[in-house]
Amino acid sequence: MLDWELAWSRALYGPEGFFARGERPAGHFRTSPLVGPVFAEAVVALLDRVDHALGRPARVDFVDVGAGGGELAEEVRQRAPAGLAGRMAVTAVDVAPRPARRLPGVTWRSTPPPRVVGLVVANEWLDAVPCPVLVRRGGGWCRVGVDAAGRETVLDPVDTTVQAWLEHWWPVGERARGGAALRAEAGTTRDRAWCSVVRTVRAGVAVAIDYHHLLADRSAGRVDAGTLTGYLHGRQVAPVPDGSRDLTAHVALDASAAAVHSVVGEPLFTTLTSQRRVLADLGVVRAVPPPALAAADPLGWLDATARSGGAAELTSPEGLGGFGWLVHEVALPVRVLAAGHRDTAA
Ligand SMILES: C[S@@+](CC[C@H](N)C(=O)[O-])C[C@H]1O[C@@H](n2cnc3c(N)ncnc32)[C@H](O)[C@@H]1O
After folding, report:
1. Start-to-end C-alpha separation, the chain
2. What spacing in Å lies between the alpha carbon of 257 and ligand 1's midpoint?
3. Do 185 and 226 form a contact (C-beta atoms < 8 A)?
4. Residue 119 has pLDDT above 50, yes or no
5. Which among 18, 94, 246 is the best mutation to test ligand 1's pocket, defined by most ligand atoms within 8 Å of the CB?
């Protein structure tokens, strides 16, 4: 039996771990960069706003953290407008090896660059950062142990850091008295990971995009069973830490927002909003092409239809459109996101 957090780390990032040996999201689940070019175009629109806010400097960074197969970095590189492309430094950061295909103009690294002026995007990264997995026992939280077949046991009570995080961010109140098998995942490791990335931004924007829950969800018991799960070849499967599958849990993005505010000294403006809202702000619209276009310009009609389908998928409230966007605008003289997003009081 291993502590779940350690078993999770080994299963994904150990010597023969799922991501460490080069498995890519494209083979197992669908992420926004895999939907098509619409997502990358929105990211380019955001990068252009950041570049404008920075005063169009001689060099502007685009950093994709947890880059997977490098699809987003590649598309952003290719789709940047001429005025930006020549000044852009594109970096894909992943612990996985560089993909075999050529990625012209993209630097591949295993750690984030130390100093960024521009835009950092971490799409579905934090959910893949292993974190403490806990169960409520005898009036307190205990760590959960697991073996390679997924059989679980209850381990020691949590330490004071995890305890403090849970008390603040995952309050179970009266439900703890009912004897129900409450579970939780503490976001301590995600908060630290995200802070270390935001700290690299000297000026610009850092965005974490992920499936998430908020304090209101956790307090109300909407995630009392925890969210730890697995993905394999396009299907959701049991979370077994044997290296065969992705292991993931939803991210407490509000906790990460607060953590950033407590450690990042730069002038900072934070917004926690949804992908649906940000993409609307960035000009993504679902425009169904007129049927007459099919006869006049069949290829144009096909392209417009694919784009419309992509926009619909990326903004669906039940799917990718419901993902949280945690946006930190760092040391910028003007705001980058339009007014009207739900701002955090972090
Ligand atoms: C769920 S995938 C998302 C991939 C891509 N962003 C996308 O949306 O298609 C998470 C990726 O984060 C990478 N990753 C996890 N921890 C990392 C770390 N500490 N540094 C760099 N990459 C990491 C994994 O190897 C994996 O490729």
Report:
1. 38
2. 20
3. yes
4. yes
5. 94
What is the average per-residue pLDDT within 5-22?
96
pLDDT attached to residue 344: 46
Q: Which residues form the pocket of ligand 1, taking CB atoms under 6 Å from any ligand atom?
A: 19, 25, 31, 33-34, 66-68, 93-96, 123-125, 128-129
Per the CB < 8 A criterion, the answer to whether 224 and 183 are in contact is yes
**Residue range 107-134: average pLDDT?**
98
Radius of gyration of the chain (CA): 21
Cα–Cα distance between 7 and 1 in angstroms, integer?
A: 9
Distance 169 CA to ligand 1 centre (A): 25
Percent of the chain with pLDDT over 90: 88
pLDDT at 185: 98
pLDDT of 333 > 90? The answer is yes
Question: Given this model, what pLDDT does residue 286 score?
Answer: 85
Burial of 8 (0-12, 13-18, 19+ CB in 10 A): buried
Tokens of 150: 């997924």
Architecture of domain 31-131+187-212+251-330: 3-Layer(aba) Sandwich (3.40)
> For the ranges 5-19, 26-40, 331-345, which has the lowest average pLDDT?
331-345
CATH 3.40.50.12710 domain residues, the chain:
31-131+187-212+251-330
**Ligand 1 centroid distance, CA of 19 (Å):** 8
> Which element (helix H / strand E) includes 34?
helix 32-35
